[in-house]
Structure formats: structure tokens, C-alpha cells
Amino acid sequence: MGKSAAFVVVVLGFCYLSMSLTVAFDASGWVKGHATFYGGSDGSGTMGGACGYGDLYTTGYGTATAALSTVMFNDGAGCGQCYMIKCDYDSDPQWCLQGKQVTVTATNFCPPNYAEPNNAGGWCNPPLSHFDMAQPAWEKIGIVKGGIIPVMFQRVPCAGNGGVRFTINGRDYFQLVLITNVGGAGSIQSAMIKGTKTGWVSMSRNWGSNWQANGYMDGQALSFKVTTTDGVTKQFDDLAPPSWRFGQTFTSPTNF
Length: 256
What we know:
Layout: H1 3-20, E1 31-38, E2 65-68, H2 70-73, E3 82-87, E4 101-109, E5 130-134, H3 135-138, E6 149-156, E7 165-171, E8 174-180, E9 188-195, E10 201-202, E11 204-207, E12 210-213, E13 222-228, E14 233-240, E15 249-251
Parallel strand pairs: 1-5, 2-4
Antiparallel strand pairs: 1-6, 2-5, 3-4, 3-6, 7-8, 7-15, 8-12, 9-10, 9-13, 11-12, 13-14
């Protein structure tokens, strides 16, 4: 092989490798908002929530969580996103803990209260950026007596502890799949499911992080394809064996 041909092969190989690499989710810039807290000092009141994650200890989120305001929650599209939050000490030195920050995952929805003005009770009304944080997380950056604090926040990559988890609920001809522990962008743009006897079937968001598809897939190994909101797609082949049952959770060997 001549030098020119060898050079072309090397360049093409490098380009292919570059296109095959997963681009890591980048943190956003710092943005101003406010934060309150809920759920009690032990965070027990934060279990469940509008993202459908259920017991947050079992699903790996614990009490480092927050409910998002209307605009940020975006009808469930914000579920799973991760934010680094710090109290804006320069704006409120009385109730802020200086130099402290905490990272939380969005697991719930803070509903609007249109009966109250945006600056006095309607904290989660559009177009505000507001976090109603689990109290244990909030106490890492603020003094409880303050009630509400000004914050600076940025969206950051989610670490993900282990692989992506798929909990298969529903019934015959209806799959309702809860997708949790998503790394990278954390939130899901689209999802697909495939049985060994079917092609890829597009899923739609039912609520929160629950995605649905219609079709008979009992007795088939199930594969999943997930695209996060930064456009990265991962495929998880034959993750659930043909013997899967409704209510079971399957964890992928990789994450975003």
C-alpha cells in the first residue's frame, strides 16, 4: 500500500472513531432562581412524585432531589435532569450558607399557584425557575428558618449509579416502561422498544418517566433504544429475557 492510500485509511479510521465516541453532556452556565423545601427533615414526604420514580431510595435518588417549577418540568420532559445549586449569598447573607452547593435530580413537579403572585407564594408559576427541594438537600445550602432563598444553578451531567434501569409494567398488548437512573443529560427525548418478533416500536411519554407502547411482546426478549435530550442515543439489546414478567426491573450494563 502506498503512503497516500495508507494516509487515507488512517484518516478515515480516525473520523469513524471520532463519530463513534459519545459526546459527554456539558454543564450549562449559571442562572438565577429561587428555592424552597418540602418533605420533612428526613425527606420522607418526597417519595413518589410526578416523574413516577416511586421509592426514591430504591431507585437510587435518595433525598438529593427537587421538584421543578412549571417551565422547568415541561410536562415531564425535565424528569431526571441534574442541577448543581448554590445559595446566592450576596443577595441573602442572612439565610444562605456561604460557599456551599448541592447537586439534585429532578423527581417531581412543583405545581403553579395562580391565586398567588409570582413573588409571594406563586413561586412555581410560569415563567419562574424554581426548585422545591427535598429538605435534607436544601439544608446543605440554606438555613431552614429562611423558608425561601435566592439561588444560582446550572444544569450538570448526571452520574448514574450503574446502568439504566427499565421497569416493565402494564399488561398484554400494553407496555408501560419506567426508565430510571439515566446518566449524561438525565432526561429522555424519545424511547423505542423491540421484541424478538417485532421491529422497533416508537414509545410515547405516558407520564413523567413512564413510556408506553402498544403491542403483544409477551414471551419475547426485549430491547430498548433511548435518546436523551442532548441527542445521544443508546441501544440496549435483549435486555429483558423472553421469561420477563410485568413488574420486573432490568438494568443495562452501560449508561450514558
